[in-house]
Amino acid sequence: MRRADRLFQIIQILRRSTLPITASQIAEELETSRRSVYRDIADLVGQRVPIRGEAGLGYVLDSDYDMPPLMLTPDELEAAVLGAQWVADRGDAVLASAARDLIAKIATVVPERLRPFVSQPSVGTPLGRKNLPDGLDIARARASIRKGHKIRIRYRNETGEESERIIWPTMIGYAETVRLLAAWCELRQDFRHFRTDRIIVAAFLDERIGCRPGELRSRWKRHMQAQGLRLP
Fold first, then answer.
1. Which residues pair with 165 in a beta bridge?
2. What domains can you pick out in the chain, each with its CATH number?
3. How far is 123 from 117, CA to CA, in rounded Å?
4. What are phi and psi of 122, to 5 degrees?
5. What is the pLDDT of residues 125-159, one digit of tens each?
6. DSSP-derived 3-state class of residue 151
7. In the β-sheet with 179-185, what is the strand arrangement from edge to edge?
8. Which of 59, 127, 200, 221 could form a disulfide with 53 if both were Cys (CB 3.0 to 4.6 A apart)?
């Protein structure tokens, strides 16, 4: 790894952590020596990168530090393009359009030498079947999740039985050909996962859920872990 790339990666490691990171941890991730890390940290501090800490205790990067967000490595670019390609193919109409715009913006602003990693990536998403049609507006459902608002739905289960429920939406997940809306169900007093193609009709309510959206998501994660299910 070039030294300039290693300096950049040290900043990235510190940016993504809320706890002090030791030189040993950094050296292990970058497959280099602690002595090199000590020297690199000293150089970064000399360049006025606001790193606090000391050898043996760990380092932290000031939370208000910013640097150009598109100083990306080729691997990071291909990862971003791969994710955006998947969303463009599988996401709802609003997200799919946003994903295509994202790829175009990245291609416009990255340096010339990196543009082939956007226009001619070495990875691609598999061709798949189209998602079954949704029974609710996914873009509005995402807005309800962010705002912490309830949704009233009429739902048809796998046996064809219909029921009306008020739910607290927490996340939209993607399976191979269907989307799933994870939510707290007031009727069942538990978390449920609703296939969006089985939602017959949905009403987006102004009524707020009974907790903060972040708290609901944390409760859903604990529910998933208790069930032994994989989290996204």
1. 153
2. 3-61 (1.10.10.10), 74-119 (no CATH), 138-226 (2.30.30)
3. 10
4. -85, 0
5. 766 556 678 899 999 999 999 999 999 999 999 99
6. strand
7. 190-195, 179-185, 162-174, 149-156, 199-208
8. 59
